[in-house]
Amino acid sequence: MNLSALLPGLLLLAAPLSVKAADAKALEKLGASVETDPKYPPVVSYTLKNGLRLLILEKKFAPTVSFAMTFKVGNVDCPSGKTGLAHVFEHMAFKGTETMNTRNYSKEKKVLDKIEATAQALIAEESRGASADRAKVEELTSRLSALEKEAGELSVSGEFTSTYEKLGANGMNAATAVDYTVYQVSLPADRVEAWMIMESDRFKNPVLREFYKERSVIMEELRMGESKPGSVLFENLSAAAFKAHPYHNPTIGWMDDLKKLTRTDAERFYETFYVPNNATLAIVGDVDAEKIVRMTEKYFGGWRAKALPSDAYTAEPEQDAERRVNVFFDAKPAFYMGFHNPGEAHPDTPALIMLSEVLSNGKTGRFYRNLVEGKSVALYAGSHHSLPGSRYPSLFLVAGYPKEPHTSADLEAAVWEEIEAVKKTPPTDWEMEKIINNYESEMVRGLESDLNFAKNISNNDRIMGDWKYDWALLARLKGVKPEEVSAAAGKYLKRSNYTIVSLAPKGAVK
Amino acid sequence: MTAAASFAGHPVLSKFGQLDFRPGKPARYVMENGLTVYLLRDNTLPIVHSTLFIAAGNAHDFPGKAGIAQMTAYLAKDGGSARHKADDIDKTLEYLGASISGDSFSEETRLDMTALRKDFDRVFDIYADVITAPAFEEEKLKVARDAELEVIRRRNDKPDESAVREAKRMFYGPAHPYGVRTELSTVGSVTRQDLLAFHSAFYRPGNSILAVSGDFASDEAMLAAVKGKFGAWTGAAAPRAGIPAAPELTGRKVYLIDKKVPQAFLVVMQKGTDYLTPDNYPLAVTTDILGGGFQSRFFREVRTNRGLAYSVYAANARRKKGGFLFSYCGTKPETYSQALSEMLKQLELAGAESPAEEEVSRSKGSIVNPFVFKFATPHKLVSERALEELYGFKEGYLDSFVADVSAVTPATARAAGKKYFDPSRAVIFVIGDKSKFDRPLADFGPVTELKED
Prior knowledge:
- The complex is a heterodimer of chains A (510) and B (453).
- Chain A has helices spanning 21-30, 85-92, 105-126, 134-154, 159-167, 192-204, 211-226, 229-241, 255-260, 263-273, 289-300, 349-360, 366-372, 408-424, 429-445, 450-464, 469-478, 482-492; strands at 33-34, 44-47, 53-58, 64-71, 170-176, 181-188, 279-285, 321-328, 334-340, 378-387, 395-402, 497-504.
- Chain A is an alpha+beta fold and 510 residues long.
- Among the domains of chain A are: 103-154; 321-426 and 481-508, Cytochrome Bc1 Complex, Chain A, domain 1, CATH 3.30.830.
- In chain A, the strands form two sheets. Chain A has a seven-stranded mixed β-sheet, sandwiched between helices. In chain A, strands 8-12-9-11-10 form a five-stranded mixed β-sheet, sandwiched between helices.
- The longest helix of chain A is centred in the first third of the chain and has 22 residues, at 105-126.
- Residues 1-15 of chain A have low confidence and may be disordered.
- Chain B folds into two domains: 27-230, 2-Layer Sandwich (Cytochrome Bc1 Complex, Chain A, domain 1); 252-450, 2-Layer Sandwich (Cytochrome Bc1 Complex, Chain A, domain 1), CATH 3.30.830.10.
- Chains A and B meet through α5, β5, α6, α7 and α15 of A and α2, α4, α10, β9 and α12 of B.
């Protein structure tokens, strides 16, 4: 796991990026606002009447444009018994619409409805487990397969993705996390309108065809994760550290839930959460902001807003126990530690971020200096202040990979020595300054890739409520005193708030 | 495939044809000591990037010292230099939020540097010193060696990666420079003297290209800085041990590592191409049609239509002396034979039948139109130009790339398919739980069962 990749990419001065005064005036006339404080890049913000937020940064080097559309919906929002649904819908959002991927939608729809009825009957029968009627299961399976074949003849499989490929899409993808789902792609800059057509249709009129085949693909994705030590560690850590809050569940879902998910479930999920007032669109690259605003109005203006359900999910009760899990897995030893943190908005969070950086930022970080070098007990040790998410209180995570002849127990003890040392002696000024300098440098680097910057501002706008969140965070970090870092370590990194998941080689099972 | 698709005919979508893009040409200089320099000034952000490309990589490891190219690249910076102690370098760079790092690949080594403009002089001084006069401090060598040894001990933790590595090893042979694997013995035996010898053999100005981009005052000023730091560096282009041609496969060889993992990992290896053959243009199209994207035959047949895999693709890994075409799939062991049969069937079809006009045109679009993204940032552009020269491509290779791919026809794509895709001459490598296989692997050819090591 590359923990540094999980840090937000921050930004600094971007002097040569600017919006001309005349353009700014025209944009303001349209109701858009242009960021003029030179501390920030000159991002244009605009909110459609239906609540869709639009952020634009004109940035011209190559004739390209990058798009990121973030929805505030993730695995955390899946109804009970339907884990993985957010991710399943994300896959289905590539399957076309009423006009894309179809030869004749009205005919196709009739077959799709028959497929749904048959699949639901099949799931109901299979859910009876040992008492299921095998003959009925077989009959329904074969009927489903025949209907899928019939539907296949009425559809144009892959038209949506293939159209993008022909247009020259780069990095076309989507990602589902516990907190959000983001759809991303880059195109040659002259193809903005193509994107508008494709995406507005996708989010307004999706047709979740090929649902049950795609569900099988996702089951393979789940098995793929089960083959990787990092995913296995993380899934077990979340499941053990969270008992009540939905961060307990893996984003890919539990296999048994996947087996029971229906197209109807995914459609309901879409209708609830895929609304313009739950999305932020960021467009970065060689574009004209004014044209973008007009085009977004044209293609997304008719998308109807809807009230969103409450997202006050079961809060995690306070942990007052040390939790240890040994997972028997065919790989060399490794562990993940988790400590509950108080959530992103909490006043202790900047100190926890500094703590994480003191421990694991670079070769001068304490883990590298003392555990990889020094005691030579680790191949790698890293940390992050908040995983798996940031919408709710989450986990301060430490990952450890011991180096032979040392064991996980040796490395765990050595990590605890580092934690106890920070509690007793605050970090030096040099360590604190280094971290701030790194954040500022990362802010500049974060602006280099148009797609990464688009994802950064769309996520921050939608999830943290401010596209400039990283600047606000930097200001909070600068205010942290070394003794506050020690205090935060003492308050959160303690045995009663501790979960550790270790991989034990399969040979160790007796 | 269909031409009658309702949506592709959308008046706006159909108006976009092939993108006509030609990458920019950064300024190029050759210094007296033979160092080639590419410069591209861009003041958008207050940052400077530099990459030194060295024309030697893992394939040039000394005999019995597999891993030395990688360790030399890591330790150039991590091991300190003549004028800077390793620990001081880390402190300076990390305090400034700057970075210097080295890495080696099959045929080249890269040393990258990033610094904010305000810190450029200080960081560039360290960068030049670690490249031209690395110290390889013994203590740091021990740290790096211990880490590499642990990485070797852990090399089978991720079976998907193991399958590709081992397939390549069986395809080329375990002693071939493209097939060789680092071992505890090879890494364990690397000494400081070996690192100095590798450095002196290959880290030479005549063997390198420096690409610098970003926020500097002028090309003249940057060139003066480069001359100031690299001007006294000496050494002509380095002689390298010849790399034998990839072995000719006469039949099919199947290998199995029996391992209880949730998926079976399937790799099919065939002979690929070198960097320079004109076959690469039609072959790129054929490979893309076969396993390149969402709409490839592998993706459509194995993933979309059958739901057998999440990850399934084909790619051509080019090498100077003959690369490899590989097809990959991760699928559950209970249906592995369906996925493997389908892949082999598609490989056979790619060699036997002409692709449809529509497939060729889609694929050309998906190669040509995103070509611009290889040049999306100033540093990507200078790096691509440096690599174009490093690999010895014909003059103007990048400039005519669009035209050369555009010239591919179903007939030339078919000819390339016929020449390269023949699954009866292939290495098939499988890691999976054979007790769950739906068909014996022997159905696909004579199986050699190996032990994970």
